[in-house]
């Protein structure tokens, strides 16, 4: 009878090792990757493909968060270089990201064609910029970041961004049928016309309610009422404006624009 060599772990097919590891809990799996390189490869192969990237530009470790990229420059307070931006964005364009958040990032040294890489993220549902600085124009910002995802955007938040004017609201209101939240808080060049654009296009959106934040801007509730009662406002008899206060742990002033076709725009002022 021919003697057979004993089967060692190294000779086991990788698929069988993967199957064995499925029966272990997370703690035991982490211990197994220290046993040998084959166990490590088997565990890596069993992991789902990453759909999420969360980056803290300050040098902190990476964290996982579903379908989003969060880039923060909270600690170093320096301008992000074009090279750094290109490395980050070029690695993200192939991912099925639905959320893009930039917080306290200074992109004034980043070239326009580098920022244009964001346009390849064409399924974004949420875009949030907070206290970011850019070297490009508002029109180019709209084309580079928002235009490719017009059909899927539900939330647009641009806070404390001096670049933003009423042009953003006009573009978003006409092209984003899924929009549910629009915030331009702290954007000093934004006026009442931004809210008017959102009201005029209310019937074209899929959702019956839109929430708009215009705190710390040039928005004026009385000016909005004057515009909507003007003969130039084509559907003035269909809308009513109601000043109110929304309780969010505290009373927050707001204006509700209601349409007789069960459409509503909630405006935080």
Automatic annotation (TrEMBL):
Highest taxon in the source lineage: Eukaryota
Pfam families: F-box
CDD domains per UniProt: F-box_SF
Domain (F-box): residue spans on this chain: 6-56
SUPFAM superfamilies attached to this UniProt entry: F-box domain, RNI-like
Annotated transmembrane regions: none
InterPro entries xrefs: F-box-like_dom_sf, F-box_dom, LRR_dom_sf
Record protein name field: F-box domain-containing protein
């Amino acid at each position: 009878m021919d003697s057979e060599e004993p089967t060692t772990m190294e000779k086991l097919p990788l698929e069988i090792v993967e199957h064995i590891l499925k029966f272990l809990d997370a703690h035991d799996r982490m211990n197994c990757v220290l046993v040998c390189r084959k166990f490590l490869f088997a565990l890596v192969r069993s992991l789902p493909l990453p759909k999420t990237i969360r980056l803290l530009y300050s040098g902190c470790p990476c964290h996982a968060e579903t379908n989003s990229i969060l880039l923060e420059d909270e600690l170093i307070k320096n301008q992000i270089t074009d090279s750094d931006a290109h490395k980050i964005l070029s690695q993200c364009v192939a991912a099925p990201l639905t959320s893009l958040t930039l917080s306290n990032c200074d992109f004034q040294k980043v070239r326009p064609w580098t920022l244009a890489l964001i346009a390849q993220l064409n399924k974004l549902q949420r875009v949030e910029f907070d206290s970011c600085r850019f070297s490009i124009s508002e029109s180019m910002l709209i084309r580079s970041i928002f235009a490719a995802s017009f059909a899927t955007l539900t939330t647009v938040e641009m806070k404390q961004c001096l670049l933003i004017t009423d042009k953003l609201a006009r573009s978003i209101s006409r092209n984003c049928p899924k929009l549910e939240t629009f915030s331009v808080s702290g954007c000093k060049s934004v006026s009442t016309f931004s809210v008017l654009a959102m009201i005029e296009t209310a019937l074209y959106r899929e959702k019956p309610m839109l929430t708009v934040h215009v705190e710390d801007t040039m928005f004026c509730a009385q000016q909005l009422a004057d515009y909507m009662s003007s003969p130039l406002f084509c559907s003035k008899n269909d809308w009513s404006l109601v000043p109110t206060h929304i309780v969010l742990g505290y009373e927050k002033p707001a204006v509700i624009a209601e349409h007789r076709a069960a459409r509503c725009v909630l405006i935080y002022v």
